[in-house]
Write a structure and sequence with these properties.
Length: 361
């Protein structure tokens, strides 16, 4: 897959912008236009800036029938993610917009300001069947632009008022901004929050997920959520062999100490365009072990960079996967994690949105 020779931008995850080719989208070629020669004329490009495009979808709840995901519906307030995690399995979705899953994914974002209004419409439909809605399943609901757009907050407010169950996954301590709503929902067993912690090493985290909050801020968020009565989960994901796998026990210990009740892990996944981007990242950041990393990943994934099969994509296979599972299970047992099983959220308290008519009783 051809790459555009864009210098690595400090503070970004991807090293290049790769042209998406899976959908027969045209690849831009040099045509003599001045844009093709702009670097020679104007010098190297300036620091990459983030742009946000408003998107107006018709619906906001996305459904899935995947047998290895513990929910059947989700809300994604944004497309693309400024956190810039090099391993993000959502990167290929940017190719649908004829944009690169590389730097475009983390700098050319889409926001859905109509999300809360659409959510009211969908929850108001006759016959709506209640089940937990997940947020953070594709891109992070608390990435930096949420500070100004507040789309996640608006959606949580609707779910809070309707007493609708909610699952949040994030790698940002910005979730604490909404602790008032989450703590109130937690009183009725309506919410669980999962914090993703990939590495405790600031140097690794800085290159692996360059615009995500410091790992220790996420651990502090686990503590604050727990003290507020919000059930909190730690997701050690993804586990990257020969780069972060040695930290599994330390992450679980730190999360348990902070107050996490449960934990999970997923070996790194490299679907579609993520694999070549990840290889470029290894070349730039870990050239001394790139071959070892990819050899173990391929052993985990049946000889390929990625194994998309249900039941296998989240678990991996072979001796490396077995070793990870054994280490994880023993550490969780020692720390008392996962003792009470999966958090069960209530669905019997749901009340449809009121619309413009105030509730009388």
């Amino acid at each position: 897959m051809p790459a555009k020779n864009i210098p690595k931008d400090r503070g970004r995850g991807a090293t290049v912008n790769r042209t998406p080719l899976r959908f027969n989208l045209s690849e831009r070629t040099q045509d003599g236009d001045w844009l093709d020669e702009r670097e020679a004329i104007d010098g190297p490009p300036q620091r990459l800036r983030t742009t946000v495009t408003v998107e107006h979808p018709r619906t906001i709840i996305t459904r899935n029938t995947s047998p290895d995901i513990g929910f059947d519906r989700s809300i994604n307030a944004y497309r693309g993610c400024e956190h810039g995690c090099i391993y993000c399995f959502a990167r290929p979705s940017h190719a649908y917009h004829d944009l690169s899953p590389g730097l475009d994914f983390e700098s050319r974002l889409f926001a859905k300001p109509d999300a809360a209004r659409l959510l009211v419409v969908e929850l108001s439909r006759c016959g709506y069947a209640v089940a937990p809605i997940a947020m953070g399943t594709n891109t992070d609901p608390y990435q930096p632009i949420e500070k100004d757009w507040r789309i996640t907050r608006d959606c949580i407010q609707i779910l809070h008022d309707c007493r609708h169950p909610l699952i949040i996954t994030t790698k940002s301590n910005r979730v604490l901004r909404d602790i008032d709503l989450l703590a109130d929902m937690a009183k009725d067993d309506l919410v669980v929050v999962a914090l993703s912690v990939t590495s405790l090493d600031p140097a690794i985290a800085r290159t692996l997920e360059p615009r995500a909050p410091h790992p220790h801020k996420r651990l502090e968020a686990i503590g604050e959520l727990t003290r507020a009565g919000v059930p909190t989960h730690v997701s050690v994901a993804p586990v990257i062999p020969a780069i972060t796998d040695h930290e599994m026990e330390a992450i679980l210990e730190a999360a348990a100490k902070a107050g996490a009740r449960s934990a999970s892990f997923i070996p790194v996944r490299l679907p579609h365009e993520v694999a070549p981007l990840f290889r470029d990242w290894l070349d730039a950041c870990f050239p001394d072990r790139k071959d070892k990393v990819m050899a173990i990943i391929q052993d985990l994934r049946g000889g390929r960079d990625n194994d998309p099969r249900y039941r296998m994509r989240m678990r991996g296979q072979g001796v490396w996967a077995d070793l990870m599972r054994t280490r994880f299970a023993k550490t969780c047992a020692r720390l008392g994690l996962n003792q009470s099983g999966r958090q069960k959220l209530r669905t019997d308290l749901f009340r449809p949105p009121e619309g413009d008519q105030p509730r009388l009783l």
